[in-house]
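Hey, can you fold this one?
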Amino acid sequence: MKFQKEQLIILITASVLLGGFALLRFIPLAGHARSVRTAKAESELQRKHLEEYRKKLPVLKKKIEKYQIKVGDFDAKIPVDRKFASLCNKITDLMNEYKLQNQLIQPGKEIIGENVNSVKLDINCSGKLRQVFGFFKAIENLERVVRIDNLDMKSETDFDIISVKANAIVYYRSNQNI
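Sure. Predicted structure:
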Protein backbone atom coordinates (compact mmCIF):
# COMPACT_ATOMS: atom_id res chain seq x y z
CA MET A 1 0.00 0.00 0.00
CA LYS A 2 1.40 3.21 -1.14
CA PHE A 3 0.55 6.46 0.46
CA GLN A 4 0.29 9.64 -1.38
CA LYS A 5 2.09 12.66 -0.15
CA GLU A 6 -1.05 14.32 1.32
CA GLN A 7 -2.05 11.14 3.10
CA LEU A 8 1.40 10.84 4.59
CA ILE A 9 1.29 14.44 5.82
CA ILE A 10 -2.13 13.82 7.34
CA LEU A 11 -0.88 10.65 9.07
CA ILE A 12 2.21 12.40 10.45
CA THR A 13 0.16 15.39 11.56
CA ALA A 14 -2.40 13.13 13.22
CA SER A 15 0.39 11.16 14.93
CA VAL A 16 2.06 14.35 16.14
CA LEU A 17 -1.27 15.71 17.39
CA LEU A 18 -2.09 12.45 19.18
CA GLY A 19 1.42 12.26 20.64
CA GLY A 20 1.28 15.91 21.68
CA PHE A 21 -2.12 15.40 23.22
CA ALA A 22 -0.85 12.36 25.11
CA LEU A 23 2.31 14.10 26.32
CA LEU A 24 0.94 17.55 26.99
CA ARG A 25 -2.61 16.84 28.09
CA PHE A 26 -3.48 13.21 28.87
CA ILE A 27 -0.48 12.24 31.02
CA PRO A 28 -0.63 15.39 33.22
CA LEU A 29 -4.39 14.96 33.61
CA ALA A 30 -3.93 11.30 34.56
CA GLY A 31 -1.34 12.33 37.19
CA HIS A 32 -3.68 14.99 38.50
CA ALA A 33 -6.57 12.50 38.65
CA ARG A 34 -4.32 10.10 40.60
CA SER A 35 -3.43 12.85 43.10
CA VAL A 36 -7.13 13.79 43.41
CA ARG A 37 -8.01 10.14 44.16
CA THR A 38 -5.23 10.02 46.78
CA ALA A 39 -6.45 13.25 48.37
CA LYS A 40 -10.02 11.93 48.34
CA ALA A 41 -8.91 8.71 50.08
CA GLU A 42 -6.98 10.72 52.68
CA SER A 43 -9.94 13.01 53.33
CA GLU A 44 -12.21 9.97 53.67
CA LEU A 45 -9.81 8.47 56.20
CA GLN A 46 -9.69 11.78 58.07
CA ARG A 47 -13.50 11.95 58.00
CA LYS A 48 -13.64 8.48 59.57
CA HIS A 49 -11.23 9.57 62.31
CA LEU A 50 -13.31 12.68 62.96
CA GLU A 51 -16.43 10.55 63.15
CA GLU A 52 -14.75 8.35 65.77
CA TYR A 53 -13.73 11.46 67.74
CA ARG A 54 -17.27 12.83 67.45
CA LYS A 55 -18.61 9.61 68.97
CA LYS A 56 -16.15 9.93 71.87
CA LEU A 57 -17.07 13.57 72.52
CA PRO A 58 -19.99 12.94 74.94
CA VAL A 59 -17.75 10.71 77.08
CA LEU A 60 -15.07 13.40 77.15
CA LYS A 61 -17.65 16.06 78.06
CA LYS A 62 -18.80 13.93 81.00
CA LYS A 63 -15.18 13.52 82.14
CA ILE A 64 -14.62 17.28 81.91
CA GLU A 65 -17.76 17.95 83.93
CA LYS A 66 -16.66 15.41 86.55
CA TYR A 67 -13.21 16.98 86.82
CA GLN A 68 -14.62 20.50 86.95
CA ILE A 69 -16.83 19.48 89.86
CA LYS A 70 -13.87 17.80 91.53
CA VAL A 71 -11.49 20.72 90.98
CA GLY A 72 -14.05 23.43 91.57
CA ASP A 73 -13.12 27.04 91.09
CA PHE A 74 -9.35 26.91 90.55
CA ASP A 75 -8.99 30.71 90.79
CA ALA A 76 -10.63 30.71 94.23
CA LYS A 77 -8.79 27.61 95.49
CA ILE A 78 -5.38 28.91 94.42
CA PRO A 79 -5.75 32.70 94.49
CA VAL A 80 -3.41 35.35 93.19
CA ASP A 81 -1.10 36.62 95.94
CA ARG A 82 -0.78 35.01 99.34
CA LYS A 83 -3.78 36.45 101.19
CA PHE A 84 -2.58 34.76 104.40
CA ALA A 85 -4.26 37.14 106.80
CA SER A 86 -7.73 36.03 105.77
CA LEU A 87 -6.67 32.36 105.64
CA CYS A 88 -5.09 32.50 109.10
CA ASN A 89 -8.23 34.21 110.42
CA LYS A 90 -10.38 31.44 108.93
CA ILE A 91 -8.17 28.74 110.45
CA THR A 92 -8.28 30.53 113.82
CA ASP A 93 -12.07 30.82 113.56
CA LEU A 94 -12.25 27.07 112.85
CA MET A 95 -10.05 26.37 115.88
CA ASN A 96 -12.35 28.50 118.01
CA GLU A 97 -15.44 26.87 116.50
CA TYR A 98 -14.14 23.43 117.49
CA LYS A 99 -13.00 24.77 120.89
CA LEU A 100 -9.36 23.81 120.44
CA GLN A 101 -6.78 25.03 122.98
CA ASN A 102 -3.12 26.12 122.71
CA GLN A 103 -3.65 27.56 119.25
CA LEU A 104 -0.63 28.58 117.18
CA ILE A 105 -0.35 29.26 113.45
CA GLN A 106 3.03 30.23 112.04
CA PRO A 107 3.98 30.74 108.40
CA GLY A 108 7.17 28.99 107.40
CA LYS A 109 9.37 28.68 104.33
CA GLU A 110 8.09 30.05 101.04
CA ILE A 111 8.70 28.01 97.89
CA ILE A 112 8.54 29.82 94.56
CA GLY A 113 7.47 27.58 91.70
CA GLU A 114 7.15 28.05 87.97
CA ASN A 115 3.35 28.45 88.01
CA VAL A 116 2.26 28.01 91.60
CA ASN A 117 3.99 29.16 94.77
CA SER A 118 3.52 27.76 98.25
CA VAL A 119 4.13 28.61 101.87
CA LYS A 120 4.44 26.16 104.72
CA LEU A 121 2.28 26.68 107.78
CA ASP A 122 2.90 25.21 111.21
CA ILE A 123 -0.38 24.57 113.01
CA ASN A 124 -0.40 23.61 116.69
CA CYS A 125 -3.42 23.02 118.90
CA SER A 126 -4.89 20.59 121.39
CA GLY A 127 -8.32 19.20 122.13
CA LYS A 128 -10.44 16.09 122.10
CA LEU A 129 -10.11 13.71 119.16
CA ARG A 130 -13.61 14.56 117.91
CA GLN A 131 -12.77 18.28 117.96
CA VAL A 132 -9.46 17.77 116.15
CA PHE A 133 -11.07 15.53 113.54
CA GLY A 134 -13.82 18.11 112.93
CA PHE A 135 -11.23 20.88 112.62
CA PHE A 136 -9.21 19.04 109.96
CA LYS A 137 -12.37 18.05 108.10
CA ALA A 138 -13.32 21.74 108.04
CA ILE A 139 -9.86 22.68 106.74
CA GLU A 140 -10.33 20.14 103.97
CA ASN A 141 -13.56 21.88 102.98
CA LEU A 142 -12.08 25.40 102.87
CA GLU A 143 -12.47 27.21 99.57
CA ARG A 144 -8.67 27.41 99.46
CA VAL A 145 -6.27 24.52 98.85
CA VAL A 146 -4.51 23.62 102.09
CA ARG A 147 -2.52 20.38 101.99
CA ILE A 148 -1.60 18.74 105.30
CA ASP A 149 1.96 17.57 104.75
CA ASN A 150 2.75 16.14 108.17
CA LEU A 151 0.49 15.44 111.13
CA ASP A 152 1.78 14.53 114.59
CA MET A 153 -0.80 13.70 117.26
CA LYS A 154 0.25 12.91 120.84
CA SER A 155 -1.81 12.09 123.83
CA GLU A 156 -1.21 14.39 126.78
CA THR A 157 -1.37 13.23 130.39
CA ASP A 158 -5.13 12.91 130.14
CA PHE A 159 -5.95 10.42 127.37
CA ASP A 160 -9.01 12.50 126.54
CA ILE A 161 -6.90 15.42 125.21
CA ILE A 162 -4.45 15.16 122.32
CA SER A 163 -1.80 17.62 121.17
CA VAL A 164 -1.57 18.23 117.43
CA LYS A 165 1.35 19.53 115.39
CA ALA A 166 0.67 19.80 111.69
CA ASN A 167 2.69 21.07 108.78
CA ALA A 168 0.46 22.37 106.04
CA ILE A 169 1.18 23.85 102.64
CA VAL A 170 -0.87 26.71 101.23
CA TYR A 171 -0.71 27.48 97.53
CA TYR A 172 -1.01 30.77 95.64
CA ARG A 173 -0.24 32.19 92.23
CA SER A 174 1.86 35.29 91.77
CA ASN A 175 0.76 38.18 89.59
CA GLN A 176 3.32 37.10 86.97
CA ASN A 177 1.51 33.77 86.43
CA ILE A 178 -1.76 35.31 85.27
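The radius of gyration is 39 Å. Let me know if you want another pass with a different chain boundary.
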